[in-house]
Amino acid sequence: MAMAIDAALPTGRKLKLSLDRDEITKRGLMVVIALYLVVALAAPLYVMLSKSFSTYSFDLAKFEFQVSDKDGNWGEPITADALNQQLSVVPPAKLGTNSDGRLQATAFFPDFSFRSPVKYKIRGTSDDASFLVGLQLHSGTEWQEFGSNEFRRVMLRPSRAIGLENYTTYFSTPTLFRSIENSVFIAIISTVVTVGLAFGFAYALNRSCMRFKDAFKLVAMVPILVPSLLPGIALIYLFGNQGLFKDVLMGVPIYGPLGIVVGSVFFAFPHAMIIISTALAISDQRHYEAAASLRASSWRTFWTVTIPGARYGLISAAFVVFTLVITDFGLPKVIGGQFNVLAVDIYKQVIGQQNFEMGAVVSVILLVPAIAAFVVDRMVQKKQVALLSARSVPYQPKPNRRFDALCLAWCSLIAIFILGIMATSQFAALVKLWPYDLSVSLKHYAFDRMDGGGWGSYYNSIRLAALTAVFGTIIVFVGAYMVEKTEGFRSGRSAFQFLAMLPMAVPGMVLGLAYIFFFNDPTNPLHAIYGTMTILVVCTITHFYTVGHLTALTALKQIDQEFEPVAASLKQPFYKLFARVTVPVCLPAILEISIYLFVNAMTTVSAVVFLYSKDTALASVAVLNMDDAGDVAPAAAMAMMIFYTNAAARLIHLFISKVLVARTQAWRLR
Amino acid sequence: MNHKKSFALAAFATILISSAAWAETELTVYTAIEAEDLKRYAETFNQDHPDIKLNFIRDSTGVVTAKLFAEKDNPQADVIWGLAATSLLVLKAEGMLEPYAPKGVELLKPEYVDKDTPPAWVGMDGWAASICYNTVEGQKLGLTAPKSWKDLTKPEYKGHVVMPNPASSGTGYLDVSSWIQLFGEKEGWSYMDGLHENIAAYTHSGSKPCKMAAAGETVIGISFEFRAAKSKAEGAPIDIIIPEEGIGWDMEASAIVAGTAKEEAAKTLIDWSVSKKANEMYNVGWAIVAMPGVAKPVPHLPANIEEKMIKNDFEWAANNRNAILAEWSKRYDSKSEPKS
């Protein structure tokens, strides 16, 4: 590099030119990845969420009746609207309905009797008016004649319009409205508990000299390796009405808020841990040396150096956990009892009643935390100072017996909680018939006899996970780099940042349905990927984009902005800096992102459940299906297979990291 | 030379012809049939029709129905084989099914065939509501087993009854709509008011209440007989109770999806699905099948199920679902919050 400078000192003008070219390339790349997010996220979501404005109501002017007397002489045609004005049989409030709405035609004929010889005719006044005879769909302006007995079966169907009625219905239904309170309540408690536990854990890992760090790191990642349904199953075995430790709860049922919170803490813990640990991993020894030389107490140092340094990570973690908990539906479905939460409401509306419009309304409401997260994220980011400047000295913890023992105890308690849940699940997978026949058998592993595609689905899951990890890491990291290290172009970067935060707040179910609506449209040029592995990969990368993005961002933020100008002044194109400095420095974060995507692709259910096809059945979906069918033990068995696979992947990843990090992170040590 | 050429040509032609004869038609079949049955069903079908390959998309009733709905403008399924009739009724009302009278449809029990001609769907087998009663836990608590729906409102069962939520489970709606049909509009709702006092939880899946009873998580689970027999066969200490008043029921049914490009193969499958062989095949797990005189008793299931089944008005249930669910949610959903 030094030789390059010697060879040709750049003139001012030339330097500017090369900078510009860099910026153009960077922005170009950013646009490409933004385009990916638009196609894979924004557009499908728009299609889905616009459904929340689709309203259905009975347009009475669209239907015309004709009635005969007893002898079969037909009277004058009259519209349903005119009849309603005369008789006011259907009050205006009853005209609003949903896509499944039906209005019995006899409502307009108060003296209707199905035995009378009177005959009826009905037709639409326009082509889009539709009505049912029994359940047979009719539409159009042809007159149709019925005897009285048959006319009973005529049901008017609503027509579609655009409006806000779904929202007014939502907010005037106390049950639905109550779910907001419940969801927020659960999410806040889970967030506080999870972030507190995870911070202590990450702190112990990064800042103490306690023993077994590697083992704890492994254990902390365990919850991410299993489907979120699993803690629900395990908690029921532990604390349910037949649970092993039922008495510990002193009569408080595990079904309900308690179960959701405990389970949420379990599955959200690693997510928070990754982010906070990344924030704590890089810190400047000089700050601590300065604090020590100023004789600051360790307590004071903690609050004035450590916490501000990790603030960005802490806030990111809090929002990640909050949105994870509020959008998860697997756990409350299994263990929530009667405690209604928003994600389960979507399930009820969409799966239970095929009411996509109301499901979309609830989804829109669930997006509010994402927007809040985005706003707070922007505010915090402004104040974030780069911790790792070009002159930084990495922090090296010193042994301290009492502190290390405390850390060990803290981590051990969390590890016991996590391993306890896992052991219970393994127990559940092996026991013949809980709780009446506790003998052990392997019969629950005969997956080919169960729902969900047997062992084939297991291999599909591995394929999906590998593809997601490779392509996802590239897309996520490059995207984060462009957002973080591009100068100017503020509005574009903000929009990108918003898109990147969005997936976290989108319940998987909503994303899955949005993909159907968007990609299964024959006019969509991307229709071809529908029903293939590609759509599963795209969906999974998008679904888990945010945490990867935040991890990359947290790591990138800690690299001093000075590196770019220095590289530029050395006339090095940005990709060289990217390949030689940024990627090697961020390698731990990059590896984290790839394994994060891998294991989540193995466990994800809610989005892909709508998208898999005959060749792409997945193991995680099999778990859900088996649990639904009541085969809890095989579900636990398959979930444990997913766990062992992920654990193996994790170990391989650990090995690769060790080798690579040893090569690239030597600069961290003095 | 010439001979060689013509020989080669002939060989080539033979290959073409034979491969044409063996060319498989692939059908995409949406289904909610249990996986362990599905494999057997496909194998049995392929014994008669090796040239049609069935590609199944299998999921729970709710997910399959929602998926079909979401794909309405560009259906991916050719055939629906084994989905709750109540779901097919909703699809029919949207004009998403292709009416077709399969060969031999006249041999089925009339209530198992759609009323319109040609029928939009045909039934395969029936499943009925029933109560799973955990005898071990019941004894521990000193309860007596219920005999009827009305028994379930007795104060002694308070907090021991679990039923599916009709807003998220088809089985739950089956129960609610059958009670209204059995007891009448007014008394039906007052019955549910009383029952609600005893309910410990409304679940989101129809099989779960029985599963919970089988695992002792609850004493009484309102579920359906097919699931109950399965749990009992696994050794769970449950009694399967068919309430005296009569039981609501639904059926698994099949239909051709409107707009399929593979109509011939789809018709072949539907024709076969009403055959005697198919009905015998259904009977392995299901006590009640669409063809009269075929069904043999299924282990663990009471013999009187079919006579206890009410005259279920599916059309009424489908056309009133919206209104009934709204009323149900108004009455019980807001009250069903835990008292914490």
Task: Describe the 3D structure.
The complex is a heterodimer of chains A (670) and B (340). Chain A is an alpha+beta fold and 670 residues long. Helix content of chain A is 63%, strand content 7%. Chain A is built from 24 helices and 13 strands. In chain A, the strands form four sheets. Chain A has a four-stranded antiparallel sheet. Chain A has a four-stranded antiparallel sheet with strand order 5-10-7-8, with no helix packed on it. A three-stranded antiparallel sheet of chain A has the order 4-1-11, with no helix packed on it. The radius of gyration of chain A is 30 Å and the shape is globular. With 340 residues, chain B is α/β, with parallel strands linked by helices. In chain B, strands 1, 2, 3, 4, 5, 6, 7, 8, 9, 10 and 11 form an eleven-stranded mixed sheet that branches. In chain B, strand 1, helix 2 (35-48) and strand 2 form a beta-alpha-beta unit. In chain B, helix 6 (170-183) crosses helix 7. The chains are: A alpha+beta (670), B alpha/beta (340). Chains A and B meet through helix 6, helix 13, helix 18 and helix 23 of A and helix 2, strand 2, helix 3, helix 4 and helix 8 of B.
Task: Quickly describe the structure.
Chain A is an alpha+beta fold and 670 residues long. Helices cover 63% and strands 7% of the residues of chain A.
Q: What key phrases describe this protein's structure?
A:
heterodimer; A: 670 residues; alpha+beta; MetI-like fold; 2 domains; 4-stranded antiparallel beta sheet; 63% helix; globular; disordered N terminus; B: 340 residues; alpha/beta; D-Maltodextrin-Binding Protein, domain 2; 14 helices; 11 strands; 43% helix; 19% strand
Radius of gyration of chain A: 30 Å
Helix/strand structural class of chain B? alpha/beta
Biggest interface, CB < 8 A: A-B, 72 and 71 residues
Ends of chain B: how far apart?
A: 94 Å
Total individual domains of chain A? 2
Question: What helical percentage do the residues of chain A reach?
Answer: 55-70%
What is the average per-residue confidence, as pLDDT of chain B, rounded to a whole number?
88
Treating each run of at least 4 consecutive H or I residues as one helix, how many helices of chain A?
24
Instruction: Kindly report how far apart the N and C termini of chain A lie.
Output: 24 Å
Strand line-up in the sheet with most strands of chain A: 3-2-6-9
Uncertain segments of chain B are 14-22, 335-340
Average per-residue pLDDT of chain A, rounded, comes to 85
What would you give as the CATH superfamily of the largest domain in chain B?
Answer: Periplasmic binding protein-like II
Low-confidence stretches of chain A: 1-6
What is the CATH topology assignment of the largest domain in chain A?
MetI-like fold
How many domains of chain B?
A: 2
| Main beta sheet strand tally, sense and closure of chain A | 4 strands, antiparallel
- Largest sheet features of chain B: 11 strands, mixed
